[in-house]
Amino acid sequence: MRKYIMIIALLAAGLTVYAQKAVTVKGSTTVLPFAQKAAEAYMNNNPGKAVSISGGGSGVGIAALVDGTTEVAMSSRIIKDSERAALEGNITIYNIAQDAVAMIVNVSNPVENLTQEQVKGIYSGTIKNWKELGGGDVKIHLVNRESSSGTFEAFKTFTLLSKLKGSAQASNQAVVTAVAQAKGGIGYVGLGYIDQKGIKALTLDGVKPSVITVLGRKYPYSRYLYMATRANARAQVVDFINFVRGNAGQKIAESVDLVPQYQTPVSEPPQDKVLAGK
Predict the structure, then answer these.
(1) Which of 2, 118, 255, 276 has its CA 20 to 30 A from that of 89?
(2) What are the sequence ranges of the domains in the chain?
(3) What pLDDT does 168 receive?
(4) To the nearest whole number, what is the mean pLDDT of the chain?
(5) Domain 99-215 CATH (choose: 3.30.70.240, 3.40.50.970, 3.60.150.10, 3.40.190.10)
(6) Multiple choice CATH, 2-98+225-255, 3.40.190.10, 3.40.50.150, 3.40.47.10, 3.20.20.70
(7) E strand or H helix at 144
């Protein structure tokens, strides 16, 4: 009897150790679909290794890295100096893909293109009706992201606005849903979210948001996507990120409409510029 109790106890302990070894990944909802598919492929290729993925936004992921509740933070914006300071410099940042922040409107809207100045006017509140932009006499319904979102931070940088008008949504998908439900709706999302019912992506200064225009540095609202870890991350964490950045992982990035990073070295990428030639 004691022998069986000991075996059961050892098995329970083994299961606990296994659960503790799952790589925890948290943050950007732009990166989330890519990370989920990459984690599934990684686990299929590595039986016995587990990865746990959750969203919440870039700021939430980085905060979790700071407080130790995640091992990998997903971010669709640069890492702030204050966040580096909170980690006391104990951080390694990996460039995992490129993306575009696409402007989307309700599918019934006849407008097909906006200029960057018009986008700025819309989100500053100076342009309030679609008839001012060649559309119908419909009030513009602004949809925004919450302040913890990396897409929100990137959009502020692109528009040079310190404050953005509009109702805050917790994810890219929530933005899509809100725009699809409002006749005058407008919002902004990552490339992986633009091919959904009820919305359409606009060209910006005549340029379509796409993998090709991001690679060619033609689309104005382009950005890098990141995964960040503590500098002393354990081997399995680094192994998962190397999978994400390798050929198999980057093919998954392409499958969710992100721009792959086949040629980017495994090191901290430049964070002082966007892809729009700035």
Answers:
(1) 276
(2) 2-98+225-255, 99-215
(3) 93
(4) 88
(5) 3.40.190.10
(6) 3.40.190.10
(7) strand 141-145
In the prediction, which pLDDT does 10 show? 39
Q: How far apart are CA 58 and CA 37, in angstroms?
A: 18
Task: Fill in the amino acid letter for 22.
Answer: A
pLDDT of residue 262: 56
Tell whether pTM > 0.85.
Answer: no
Distance CA 94, CA 243 (A): 12
- Residues comprising the chain, all counted: 278
Residue 169 reports pLDDT greater than 60? yes
Residues 6+ apart with CB under 8 A from 163: 124
Does pLDDT of 111 surpass 70? yes
First to last CA, the chain: 72
Nearest to 260 by CA among 212, 197, 218, 219: 212
Distant-in-sequence, close-in-space partners of 215: CB < 8 Å, separation ≥ 6:
98, 259
User: What's the pLDDT tens digit per position in 200-253?
Assistant: 999 999 999 998 999 888 999 999 999 999 999 999 999 999 999 999 999 999
What is the enclosing helix (H) or strand (E) of 6? helix 2-20
Same fold, 2-98+225-255 and 99-215: yes
